[in-house]
Write a structure and sequence with these properties.
This protein is an all-beta fold. Helices cover 0% and strands 54% of the residues. It has a single domain, classed as Sandwich (Jelly Rolls).
């Protein structure tokens, strides 16, 4: 298994990218997002996708496979430090060279951090050197 990490501290399309190194199966995505929301209705969204442009506000996008959102409702002025942590189980084949994008969007002025971990089971033959850095079954 290989674990990849994407991390963004800015609100942007394609805020972070990475390339899959070996063929495998994306078995899960962990998203941890934190933002300071300062006004009623402020929000922050992130999306993990194969597309270079985000589909956060788009119907029937077929490239995105994970996402998370924050929103705050304030009755008075102030700010709210908000966070979300979510794990999404998948069984999605990926190929070496495929690019993964982390998109962020929202009305909040301050995205503290959006971090995404991708858990990819490598398809390499045992002993081929393509098993990844973390191996199952207690093998050294």
């Amino acid at each position: 298994m290989t674990i990849y990490k994407l991390m963004a501290t800015t609100v942007a399309e394609g805020a972070a990218t990475l390339d899959i190194q070996d063929d495998g199966v994306l078995e899960g995505v962990l998203i941890a997002m934190r933002a300071t929301l300062n006004a009623d209705g402020e929000n922050m969204n992130c999306e993990v996708s194969f597309a270079s442009t985000n589909g956060i506000a788009t119907n029937d996008t077929r490239a995105s496979f994970a996402g998370a959102a924050l929103q705050v409702g304030l009755l008075t002025s102030g700010s709210a430090n908000s966070s979300v942590n979510v794990f999404i189980a998948l069984n999605l084949p990926v190929s070496a060279g495929e690019r993964i994008y982390l998109h962020t969007a929202g009305t909040a002025a301050a995205l503290d951090r959006a971090s995404v971990w991708l858990y990819v089971a490598d398809r390499g033959r045992p002993g081929s050197g393509r098993e990844g850095r973390i191996r199952r079954g207690g093998r050294a």
